[in-house]
Amino acid sequence: MKVAIIEPVGGHGGMNYYNSGLCNGLVELGIETYLYTSAETPESDLDQFEVRRFFIGIYGSDSKYIRALRYFKGLILSLLDIRRRGGRFCHLHFFHYTILEFLTCVFARLFGLRVVATIHDVESFSAGTGFPLLGCIFRLADRLVVHNDFSRREILRILKGLKVSREIFVIPHGNYLPFVRPVDRDEACSRLGISSDKKIILFFGQIKKVKGLDVLIEAMPLILASHPNAVLLIAGKVWKDDFDEYERAIQRLGIQDSVIKHIRYIRDDLVGSYYSAADVVVLPYRRIYQSGVLLMAMSYGATTISSCLEPMQEVVDDGVDGFLFDVGSSEELASVAINALNGSVRSVGAQAVEKMKRAHDWNNIARKLLDVYKKYAR
Description:
The protein is an alpha/beta fold and 378 residues long. The protein is 43% helix and 17% strand. It is built from 14 helices and 13 strands. It has a seven-stranded parallel β-sheet, sandwiched between helices. β4, α3 and β5 form a beta-alpha-beta unit. The longest helix has 21 residues.
């Protein structure tokens, strides 16, 4: 069997970890695997599969029309290569549902390929997502893959409204254990320019409204009352949000001396330092379908504190391998964080790693995906 995965984000947005784990898992099972991705995806000694970086210049400050043309050039080169290799289907990954994603499915069909689609976000968090386009994309895909039961129920709700029937496979998001590069905590703090005697509360990843950073900021005065040496480390770039709103809240609460802001894209070579330095990693999301940040933090053995959303509950066993708190409650978040920072929960990180090994192993995920692909086996 030949498996062709088209995933243009790659190293531009951290999907290179996911792609590498998935493709290596397939190769370990003896599957001939090809990845078509962006030029920003770095080379890795771990990769056992063939990579084609056909999506060149699709990110940056150039005109969106020029970048769209480059995207379709990369897509056509990818589809031609799949056909040349005798592939019968392509595996696509969706986070948004715009004309770009719709035309991607259309072109795949025009090239005579069937479409397997992993739906990372059932409905995009970006403005401009069209429900009709989402329905058209779901119609064009032959088989749909999601990462949890919550997403499956959401898709079934949408498909019912569209009077469309599709087989939906629930396959977990894989762990980040192959990519974990732990750093001694003192060294990690030194790299980040933070004193190692601080209690570091980490918010990591894209900053956007649904991530609930404001909930964590509002919790900080309560946390500082119990742990005056705590600091909130915000690490990530802003995405369709206004950081000035968070800045005003920080000033209003008078916690500016306890907030460290690394408002930028975090390079791969520094990611390990952030997770190794953190005492707790907080994910105060208001809405989510799945979280790579949660799985990466747990892969590093971090103590996580997450909003009690259904997708989080499907990963975290509260009080065993992480902690959950009521969505939007700064008071409960503060209470959980204070308990975690007291140091009475040291086994949580070790249990998180065990959970990642047991429930999110890439080889097991690859085996489940073979059931999705088997219709196209040759």
